[in-house]
Amino acid sequence: MEDKSVATNNAHDPAHDLSRRNFMQSLGGGVVILFSATAPKAGFAQEQPKQQPKGKPAGGGFGMGGPPPDLNAYLRIGEDGKVTVFSGKIEQGQGNTTALAQMAAEELCVSLASVTMVMGDTALCPWDMGTFGSMSVRVFGAQLRSAAAEARTILLEMAAEWLSVPPVQLQIDDGVISAVDKSKTVTFAELAKGQKITRALEGKAVTHTLAEFSVMGRDAVRVDAVAKVTGAAKFTADYSFPGMLHAKIVRPPAHGAKLKAADASEAEKMPGVTVVREPDLVAALAADPEVATAARAKIKVEYELSSGAAPETVDEKTIFDHLLGNLPKPQIPANEKSGDLAEGEKASAEVFEHSWRNGYGAHAPMEPHAALAKPEGDGMTMYISTQTPFPAQNQVAGLLKLPPEKVRVIAPFVGGGFGGKSSGDQSNEAARLAKATGKPVLVAYTREEEFFYDAFRPAAIVKIKSGVDAGGKLTLWSYDVYYAGNRSAEMFYDAPHKQQQVYGGPMSFGPNAHPFQTGSWRAPGANLNNFARESQIDVMAAKLKADPLDFRLKNTSDKRARAVLEAAAERFGYKPAPAPSGRGIGIACGIDAGSYVAEIAQVALDAKGAVVVKKVVAAQDMGVVVNPAGAKMQMEGCIMMGLGYTLSEELRFKGGRILTTNFHDYKLPRFSWLPEIDAFPIKHDDLEPQGGGEPAICPIGAAVANALFDLEGVRLHEMPFTPERIKAARKG
Amino acid sequence: MTETIRFKLNGQPVTLDTDGDRKLLWVLRTDFGLTGAKYSCGIGVCGACTVVVDDKAVRSCHTAVRDVKDKDVLTIEGLAPDAASGKLHPLQQAFADLGAVQCGFCTPGMIMTAYALLKKNPDVTREQVIAGMENNICRCGAHQRIVQAIESAAGAGKRG
């Protein structure tokens, strides 16, 4: 065994040094490349609650911790020649497992099938902040490619020595390195055997060019597809261990309610039932989930209701006044400020003032939050449906007063997260109950619990004052956003006098704002920001009797925006006409996670006055496309999911009481809603891969709103566009 | 009340002495370790728990196990008995090949619903597929590809 070099950097903390040494020892043999993938800019999609609303149940968002330490992933060519990538990212349906495996396979010149991804296990993977913000491919993937390229360089150097052939005269084909004339060969396995080579990524190795691609840039069948179609794929609640108890926890009637008294005597009499009673946690546990549910129903509880952050008079209709009456201080981002608003107004031939809104939305993943805690010696192994296994590990360790390494968190397949599984109290609950009973405990939320404890997309408002001159050029853009943050609010239309004021983000809020927890919902805030900007642009185009596409192109010099708008228009067969043309065609364009998307929707109304989206064309510039099939799947998924926030998804509540309880009263898109979707990435090969999981969901609300206006001249200012809102908008 | 309940599960006869009121979903998941059928809404609205009983799709989350006495219950795990050797049912193959799978949580229910749909009507039209799948919810938005996969599997069924 040879220990060539163990490179470290930036490790100053002695505890970190120790854990790092332990980690290095645990790596085993073969060729290992350590690397770190940090976020491109601080604060992006990682904002955490700064203040919890008063009277809210404990728990909620995982603390996101600081920036990642000096390494957060590694890649190993094992002594058997197999390639394994270890990353704390998780798979929640977005297909990052497949795209990342493609990136590693590409640079190592092996087939996709020979790469194994080990993800979301705190015992096997280095620290990672979590999976959100469409960052797996564009941030982590870029580093993974460099690491794989570096591993390739090392293997080529080793092969050169082994074969006595200079590296430049070697080629690699699926894990076999040979001289160009094929006279001599050596396999990755032969090279890695008996080695213990560990390197930190230097980033010097050259990654493959587009012309060299043999795995990237090609359609790949998802690596998790077979497990998922056969029922073999395991989600958190699918795990079971001997002696495991299903826990059903007593829940308050409203956020802000405090448990006053609990009488569990009837439940305790039931055979096989264990009751755990702590001041803030009362649960019935049994080997059979239905028995636990029946036992919970027998626990008599009294709650003290409190008005919490908002009284019951605050509901989905009055929430906007409530929020605007409790404003946090605004921030004015420097990069969105130019000129002078008063000047802009003077230069305007026409000024437009509108406000745009959405209420609270639920993530409603098909898999409700779940956590399984299994006591192991003096530690705990946890299976958690989470987007953030490492922050969850810290949280549970803190709760149990254990060092983090005594808590192992495994995030199995996650059945949809959309931002909602960056938070959740179920892991704390499972850990506490497992500690109390000494047995493995599964806490799997019911759908009703899921709707109650969701970290909802916040109700939010955008107010825009804009102006155009007599020639139809933008003069003024004053953009105030309340409670949504300014993700995707960058003004890519050319407004000489502009300013943004940002009152709170999707997860930060004043002390008396939201009546319950809010959080990030697929592209947090971006859906509202796109709806607001693109609706306002359309209002101005209509007033000027200008074609909405022409008006956009006339007012933006942003090449990428122009490219996606033109690509979508061409594919749609778009013919210019000022709105309302009666055709029901609407356009919207947006930027998110480094990608640009333009969408064109065509709508009609059914007999009941509900919107039917007939067709959606979407063109996306996401740089180099790693898995074109996967990219299209994400775009189609964004559009279909986006029809929900656009047309039907709306939480009903009174103060801290959530009235929406299940899928019968929270309407998600159905098969009958399926439009003809033509979603495609456009070519932009000199740009590194950009985000793909979220961008295409952002403009769909605006595209449908603008299509509705084009259909009959009715302008909707609040999503979702229900038949009632359309009727009300017609009356003006 | 405990009673003896016999039925066929994925082709094999099974016998249970249990409370007949228990829901089939929990019996499958807890007693048989068959976790392909998922809990998602618990009120029969979303279809994630769908299994096939005597060739009909049923919502196992609100089907009492007593109601499958002497019947044939087919779950996603029994759809392709040769799955271990890599041979999938045409529906499973089409879902995988056409990318009709994202998070995968609704997938077993989608496939079992589609299986019953194609059993009843192998010559299914696109409109019939959409109507037949209407009460299965997918949150990831894989609808377009799910429809394509079912159409493709129906075609494969006809061809071979």
Could you name the key traits of this structure?
heterodimer; A: about 725 residues; alpha/beta; Aldehyde Oxidoreductase, domain 4; 3 domains; 7-stranded mixed β-sheet; 18 helices; about 30% helix; flat; disordered N terminus; B: about 160 residues; alpha+beta; Ubiquitin-like (UB roll); DNA polymerase, domain 1; 5-stranded mixed β-sheet; 5 strands; about 35% helix; globular
Characterization of this structure:
- The complex is a heterodimer of chains A (732) and B (160).
- With 732 residues, chain A is of the alpha/beta class.
- Helices cover 28% and strands 23% of the residues of chain A.
- Chain A has three domains: 2-222, Aldehyde Oxidoreductase, domain 4 (2-Layer Sandwich), CATH 3.30.365; 236-304 and 369-444, 2-Layer Sandwich (Aldehyde Oxidoreductase, domain 4); 319-361 and 456-731, Aldehyde Oxidoreductase, domain 4 (2-Layer Sandwich), CATH 3.30.365.10.
- In chain A, helix 2 (96-108) runs parallel beside helix 3, helix 10 (389-400) crosses helix 11 (426-437) and helix 16 crosses helix 17.
- The radius of gyration of chain A is 27 Å and the shape is flat.
- Chain A starts with a strand and ends with a helix.
- Chain B is of the alpha+beta class and 160 residues long.
- Chain B folds into two domains: 2-78, Beta-grasp domain (Ubiquitin-like (UB roll), Roll); 83-159, DNA polymerase, domain 1 (Orthogonal Bundle), CATH 1.10.150.
- Chain B is built from six helices and five strands, in the order E-E-H-E-E-E-H-H-H-H-H.
- Chain B has a five-stranded mixed β-sheet.
- In chain B, strand 1 and strand 2 (12-19) form a beta hairpin.
- In chain B, helix 3 packs across helix 6.
- Chain B starts with a strand and ends with a helix.
- The mean pLDDT of chain B is 95.
- Chains A and B meet through helix 5 and helix 16 of A and helix 1, helix 2, helix 3, helix 4 and helix 5 of B.
